[in-house]
Amino acid sequence: MRRHPLTSSVVRSVGYDAETAVLEIEFTSGDVYRYYAVPPSAHRALTEAESPGAYFNRHISDRYPTRQQYDH
Q1: Tens of pLDDT along 19-40?
Q2: Suppose 23 and one of 33, 38, 50, 51 were both cysteines; which one would form an S-S bond, judging by CB atoms 3.0 to 4.6 Å apart?
Q3: Which neighbouring-strand residues pair with 4?
Q4: Where do the H-state alpha helices sit in the chain?
């Protein structure tokens, strides 16, 4: 999945597949996670947030099924 960089101290880049509702986030630590069943509005809000890290913690982190990607 192609990711686009964000200006954030927590989130390095974000990708989204609207067909499968999968959000992929690369953190500044280098870890990459995929979040499932994420609506387009949540992806858009994350990319437009003044603080993407804070938005992630409040609205995505514990709300969607996730899996760490090891083949990045």
Answers
A1: 999 999 999 999 999 999 999 9
A2: 38
A3: 14
A4: 40-48, 52-59
